[in-house]
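Rotation project, supervised by the postdoc (A.L.). Task for the rotation student: set up a whole-complex structure prediction and record inputs and outputs verbatim in this book. Inputs entered:
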Amino acid sequence: MIPPIAPLPPLPATPPAGGAAAADASGGTFSNAITQALDSVQQTQTTASTAEAQAAAGQGSVSDALIDATDASLATQVTVALTNKAVTAFTDVMNLQF
Amino acid sequence: MDQILNVLQFALDGLSQQQQVVANNLANADTPGFTAQQVNFESSLQQALASPNGGQATVTVTDSPDAPGSNGNNVDTGNQLVAADQTTLQYQTTVEMLNAQYRLIQGAAGGSFS
Amino acid sequence: MSLFGAFNISASGIDAAQTWINTTAGNIANANDVAPVSGKAYQAQTPVYTPTTSLPDGSGDGVAVAGIDLGDSTGIVESDPTSPLANSQGLVRVPDVSMGQQLVNLVQAQNDYQANTAALERAKTAYQAALTLGQ
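Outputs recorded:
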């Protein structure tokens, strides 16, 4: 049974290069920093999915779709690594005995 | 777009059917009275993607409008060989996109990205 | 839809083309066989192709050779007094086979064979790609 197809979301603006988690070094709470990092990665993933759907439907460039997919993968990879590090550091700090 | 896996899976189904129809056209390239067929799934997919509420995309198989030759057969072997190549390349590409999505999900969930 | 479908379909096309090559080669080899007027001339063989639709949804499933048509055994009566098979009037029977047509058919059959082989290769490539899913 072919599941129903959801509509394409509108194309977002070009996402910033990977490593957005490191940009929020000062100000904002810790959870804001994590959320922002994950949101910007979400954009790269949406761009990739949209490009792939268009390529599968015969419009849009296949090379763009695969490049966008690689971008999303890299951005996600970096963000996941940084997020894990940040959570570990946070936990360490919280566990300090004074 | 969390529906991307469905979209790519549908595209693979459509391409698989296209491969079969092209193979059948080539097998019957000299069968008297045989009418070649063609598959279209891209336009249905485009429509579903573009409409505000999504929708059901379908694969349609229709008769080729090419004029038949003297024995009633209208298979254009050259065209069909190109179609076989094209279908195969598209299939490989779609598999690659699907695998890229799987790797992304795997990595984001804490597994390996490779 | 199964990719195995494409395999079997192309395999049937290869078989059919092979039959056509074999019968055409036979026709060419025997096109000049002389027979006595009292006997039968060599009958040209032509495979009869029919499409098969044995899949449950009725979609095309390849091609089958329904039978072999035999040409007219009357052939052509011609004069060849030097032939050892000639009758008292110097007549013999020769097959009603056009060498030109048979050569054209042979080329066509070989093209069909190659086209179906190419299709089989493509199906194999696609199937190998499918095997990498999730790996």
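Student's summary: Chain A touches chain B through 31 residues (CB under 8 Å).
Supervisor addendum: The two ends of chain A are 61 Å apart (CA to CA).
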